[in-house]
Design brief:
This protein has 3 domains: 52 residues, no CATH class; 42 residues; 145 residues, MucB/RseB, C-terminal domain (Phosphorylase Kinase, domain 1, 2-Layer Sandwich). Helices cover 47% and strands 20% of the residues. It has a 7-stranded antiparallel sheet, sandwiched between helices. Strand 6 and strand 7 form a beta hairpin.
């Protein structure tokens, strides 16, 4: 008599993406994914998302907790009072712990735009908003490239080059000025012969200079971030990650 095969549920797929399944169940999920490409794509996206989260918050998790999150202080607060009053106080302490811890772990999301998490989020939003535009995808078109470069350089307060990505099959459409966390940002837009568009989102470098490449995924979009001592830049597009990395490397070298 063969063992009963349990149906594959979403929680099984999530656990598989997180690496939390035992060997037997993992084999069943892998067999399922071979026959269900849509679920396989979801799992792959979750893995990319996990990698982006680890990249963004891994260093933060290794830092010591601030004194205000000292467990002994929280325990002392929970012991205060009795009966209903005790229960209410305990509930308040739990809420405080969650709120404070959330603020500590999530502080990078609201960091200055040069921080990778906030910059990638703004770059993704700007790409979604303008890359689908037909009539006005850019403010200044590529036929006035000299003006585009000088205008954005002046507004950002740094000398900006416009990378040539024609070797990767992408030609410049133009660019625009955008806000980013209280300062100016530049967006360059490129398009290939198939109509695919990628954007470069650039701000002056902040305290986090000379960062290695960091990745993030959102829906069908891939984003890649880096910074040097002059700029912080995110490149966004609906492309395979390896292809985006090749383009980013070419742009990085031209930015110097």
């Amino acid at each position: 008599m063969t063992a009963e095969r349990h149906p594959i549920r979403e929680e099984d797929l999530i656990a598989y993406a997180d690496g939390r399944l035992g060997a037997d169940r993992r084999g069943e999920v892998e067999s399922w994914l071979r026959d269900h490409p849509n679920d396989a794509a979801r799992v792959d996206a979750w893995r990319h998302q996990n990698e982006a989260i680890r990249t963004a918050f891994g260093p933060v998790a290794a830092e010591p907790l601030p004194a205000r999150l000292d467990v002994r202080r929280m325990a002392a607060a929970r012991r205060a009072g009795s009966g209903r009053r005790y229960a209410m106080a305990a509930a308040a302490v739990v809420l405080l712990v969650l709120g404070a811890a959330g603020g500590w772990m999530g502080r990078g999301v609201f960091a200055p735009p040069a921080g990778s998490v906030s910059l990638i989020a703004e770059a993704l939003d700007a790409h979604r908003l303008y890359a689908s535009e037909v009539v006005h995808p850019v403010e200044v078109k590529s036929d006035d490239e000299a003006h585009l470069s000088s205008w954005l350089s002046k507004r950002l307060g740094i000398v900006l080059v416009i990378p040539d990505l024609s070797a990767d099959g992408f030609r410049l459409i133009g660019g625009r000025l955008l806000p980013a966390g209280g300062q100016a940002a530049a967006q360059y837009m490129y398009e290939n012969d198939e109509g695919q568009r990628i954007t470069l989102f650039i701000v002056p470098a902040g305290k986090e200079s000379r960062s290695a490449f960091r990745y993030a995924s959102s829906d069908k979009l891939e984003a890649l971030f880096w910074s040097n001592d002059k700029i912080a830049c995110a490149i966004v597009g609906d492309l395979p990650r390896d292809a985006l990395k090749d383009i980013a490397t070419r742009a990085y070298k031209q930015f110097g």
